[in-house]
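Sequence in, structure out. Go.
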Amino acid sequence: MNWIRLGAGFTLVKSAPTVILPRMTEDSGTGQAPSQAKYLLLLVAVVLAPVVFTWLTSSPAQSDVDFDLSINAGKTHYEAGEAQESIDAFTRALKSKPTETDLLLNLANAHRLANHPLEVIKYAKEALAIDANLAAGHFLIGCAHLRLDQATEATKALQQAYYIDNTVGAVGYLLGKAQLAAGNAEEAAMLFEEVAAFETDHLGAAYALSQALTALGRTDEAKAALELHQQRIAGKKMPDQPGHWEMCSHTEVRIPFKLAQPDASGIAVQFVDDTAKAFAGNADKFIGPFGVIDFNHDGNNSLFVRTRTNTFRTLLNTNAVFTPVGFEFPAIEGAHYSRCLVGDLNNDRFDDVLMLGDQGSHAYRFATNGLARDLSKFSKLASLKAIDGVIADIDFTGKLDLLAIQPGDAGLKIFRNLGSIYFKDITKTSGIPTQITGALKLVMDDWNNDDMLDLFIPLKSKPPMFMQKNRGAVHSPTNTLPTLPTASALATGDLNNDLRVDLVCLANGKLEVTFNGLEERQTLPLAKPGATAVSLFDYDNDGWLDLFAIGDGVQAFRNQGTGGFTDVTVALGLDSLTGQVTQLAAADIDRDGDSDLLLAHATGLKYLRNDGGNANHQLKIRLYGNRSNASGIGIQVETVTTGLRLKRTVHSLPIEIGIGKNKLLHSLNARWFDLSLFNLDVKVKPGETLTLTELILPTGSCPYLYAWDGEKHRFVTDLLGASPLGLPVAEGVYIDADPDEIVWIGDETNFQPIDGNYQLQLTEELREILYLDEAKLLAVDVPTGTEVHPTTKLRQRGPYPPAGLTALAKRKPLRQAKLSDGLDVTAALLANDDQWVSPVELRLPQLRGLAKPYSIEFDFGPLDAGAPLALAMTGWLHFGGGMANIAASHHADLPFPFPKLEAQVANGTWQKIDVTVGAPVGKTKTIVVDLAGKLPSGAKRLRLSMAFEIHWNRIALFEKTSLPSIATMHPTTTDLHWHGYGAIEDLPSHLPLTPIHDQTGDTPNWRITPSGWVTRYGDVDELVAVKDNRLALIAAGDELTLGFAATKLPTQRPHTARQFFLFTSGWDKDADFHVAHGWTVEPLPWHGMDAQRYGREPRPKLDDGWIKKYNTRWIGPRPLHKLNKLTTSK
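Output:
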């Protein structure tokens, strides 16, 4: 705890961030203030009176004093039970820091004290919009809905609070009350029993338990619970105020994070004109627009510029001196060029360049050492006439697309990047409104913190247009922005370091600053008229974005946090710069740790060296996207360190972020398309660029299956990969789900009973929902020399044959197998072992799951076309997912990926065999290809060709034989419970991802999960006993234990090996951006539904009484991080 000197000899208690102050007294919330608290309040008022006077008459830091006064007064009033005074004090504090979650929760609690449930919901929701993992926010919303007699809404909110921390008794108790009020007595009873067991002094839990048990008809248990209540209440008074039952750590006053403000005087910085040296006296030969490009990724920021002779060329930066290199490329005579865009347009790890002009545009592909190729005609952009543009991944396929403004009020143009710097005009089909007149500029940023880039468009004669991006929809105009002035330009960035994007509009000779979530604005008059653009960057590396306006010279404003913005044009030495400036870029050209200025000036290019900014430290980052675009354009970077937290959206390169005097970052996070991976305790070293690579971790695939092998739960494979809901293969075209599947579990050596039961674990460890309709165990006693395999596999489309088993015998020896690149792979394909055959070459990570076409030729000796031959092929398929599928659908030249089989006949030619080869459904499985009656006469060799990323382990040829009898058993016990997210084995990339059952965590890497009602924890016997459209809805982090009584299986036949299989029927849905309704649990599937109309086809009349009975647990939409829990997973 720190004591902060306020002046006049007085001190005020301050608390470190996240510290919770002492809990409320038992009388809090009753409206009766204890006399001691009243005296304390009077004492505080008397003691602080001189402080208030000092604040009114002294320095700018007094706003912090006022904030502290309001917090302490609010706390004192709150603990005295004086609700309105507490509301007033916290409201005053909130005005200066309106996006502080602790303040919002304090105000919500004050309104709870005043019994204003709607206000409680309002402020708690505002806090959760900033941080969804605030258990107190969910708890307070739940309390408010209970007071409003809204049991269902209360259950949703309290369930979230319970998920985050179920050690808080009030949460479990009130969740039980909500469930009981909603008619879910069984869930209520479990919650009350838990609270009664863990909080023996809780006065209401045992009584509420007796009520729930009575509702369930369990009279004897209810009587026992009532007797326990009477024992605990003996000599005490049963509280009758709702505030008593709500009291817990979530209703205590919080002290907000102390965001250190910029030093009022700052560090001494001068921008020194070093143009003559930097351009060797040739600066007047180069004009804008220009782009900053580090083509060697060595930290040297070079330039791509336009010349006075109407060409484009590269200027190599060596020790802050620019030298022309490579070819000169012609520009269009008479064209006006307005924008140079830099980013990796083909995901080859080298940044490329687009140059936009009103008579046509150009595209240049870069390689090492600044060597560039003109791909303007190939790119299909040569005819694009544009006055402004922006590159961004607008269709979430991991490639940078182009949005451009056409001259002459012709509206927008939208180009989809198809890869290889080849663009397709989708203006008419994109769904994005493009008939916009008066458009001046395009800016993209995430205004509403939903991880999707929104679009801002300043207009000529009216306020800017705002197009919001929502899941499952295109950019659409909305009026959710605050009222803005008519602006000629705007810029976005987090100006007050509250982790929200703010807006700066250039309007009527002023800069109008609009803070996200604040009503107050700041207006900065410009000393010089005619400004044309505004830019944000941190020139002094103090961690706060500063403002720069260009036009007639450059005008600069230093960000002083709560102290506002100060005009530092003269202090920075920029007042002497006159003449028209059309472009400003900030980049560390001399590599001394601060951002220099590059200007496109009427006289040519200018280089203004930043002298002094490196007195503070600068974080340099290079992003390497794998699923996202390779440059990381549009990605948000967040960091937290001592007294500083900030978020920056990557609008352009390079990425340079000031961090003040800090050398150690507590956390550094790149918010990639799917994942947020935190780097902890990151050391920042001068001159070093940190590379943040997007890891290709699974977020969606399939549920996992584990089997008890006598020592541990062994990972077997994944399930229902051929039955995805709403998974597109192209826009508007979805995979036809095949809901029935059989997978091999093992034999008696690696699948053994435990306590008399064969035990299987089905887990959802990814960003998905499993809709399980049936599960049953199959046992087959297989004679020596025979193999039994499932007939299920991934097929291109339905209708699908019934799931079954087939028996194979009389294996034919594999004489030779050769990969299409000439590699002999015979030994690798002989047995299911640690040798695998992988594709020759994979596609880019953005097209994961696909490979460049490859084939394997097999020589099994003479092939008898009349024999019942069948191939048994064991391998695994790398699933691409919705994002990769849509990206692939944009490449018309990609081959059909499914495997095909050909036979070589006597004359040496190859003939296609009319069979459905299919593919393994996800992780390691064996598929069977029935060749009976399919081989041409005289066939002597086989060839398997494909363009999927399939890794093969064994490929063998058999003859089909009679299938032994099958013993079938449904689970004798089931239990749905929390499991968590398993760690992954460290294996080579050619092996399938393998989770570890007993190494789990409670925090996922993704930021969104399907939201809705799912199956409550406990037994689900009747839901999985038969295929009847009554589903167990299993959410991310859940585990379903299936127990099968070993004694119910028949005696094993002699001279056989018992093989076990699992039949499942159901569906799985991923929260991928492109999956139809991927962000909600509903619509629920049913057998016979039309996969192409998922979400649009009316649900038929079914026996849906199970929904109300079982679906009583609310999840989503944001994955929550467990902070505490009472029990471990089973």
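Check: Residues 969 and 1048 are 8 Å apart (CA to CA). The first strand starts at residue 2 and ends at 7.
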